[in-house]
Write a structure and sequence with these properties.
Pfam family, one: NmrA
CATH architecture of the largest domain: 3-Layer(aba) Sandwich
Structural class: alpha/beta
Helix content: 40-55%
CATH class of the largest domain: Alpha Beta
Keywords: NADP
Distance between the termini: 71 Å
Largest sheet: 7 strands, parallel
Family: Belongs to the NmrA-type oxidoreductase family.
Organism: Parathielavia appendiculata
Protein name: NAD(P)-binding protein
Amino acid sequence: MTRNVCITAAEGQTGFLIAELLLTDQDFKKKIDSLTCLVMDPSSAKAKELQSLGAVVVPHKPGREREVVNTLKKTGCDTICLIPPAHKDKFDIAVELTHAAKKAGVQNVLLISSVGCDYAEREKQPRLREFIDLESLVLASKGDPNSPLGHSPCVIRAGFYAENLLLYTEQVRNEGLLPLPVGENHKFAPVALGDISLVAAHVLTGKGKHGFDDKHRGQMMVLTGPMLCTGSELAASASKALGQTLEFENISEREAKRVLKAQSDLDESEKEYILEYYSLVREGKTNYISTTAFHDVTGQHPTEPDEFFRNYAGELRPKKKLRSH
């Protein structure tokens, strides 16, 4: 049984890590026959790196469904990992890809969705709520006997990436502060991006008589980190890993917006998503963990906050100040 995988938005953080894992981990590598990476910017460093690792990099030009259908047919893929791109038209592009995958006769689809989309309200958290519409669209094919795409869907609702906390490296280094607009007492469970890509790689390479492995097929996998943390608990965790005291500062949404604008080159849609997720935290709607799927699929334990901060300690540690004479 062949397995030809296509990953969309492969030059983004999530797509790149999943693709890199499939191309470099021997266990996963031997289970796929080819890997195509759809990218909007083929000249980007990540696209070039994926090419050097053995991926077929294909430009993705959204806007005309017929062309996207042809692109997918040419890749010969039977499996698509659908990642909504970091783009102002993220929703429209993901919808177009879903329709195109259906028309191109792709059999297996893994959608990377978002934790919290089911708690989000359309007026308050529109970027998060969009994921519910995408999930519905992908899963709607299940009842369509004429669509191969309906046979083998899987959805991963990815938690809030712990890597987003690295956007505050400047404050951590210079002021010993972790500034987040999450309120004093509400909790959330950030997840390491590596954990999301590991589960995705298992799903994309798993095989069963209907496409994906029956253990994964049709699953709604909700993946958060293994520990619920307030802002103060995250700061304590980072302090332990860095060997110095960090304090949590509960900042306003307005200030959070300013910080994101000043310190990141994220797409506007991503900034909106991050701020909306923080607003869910403040509403007390993220006070849960969901690690069962991770344990079940990988047989491992997800990354604890202490371990996450240890992994990034080099980036977060203050630059040593020279003693003045």
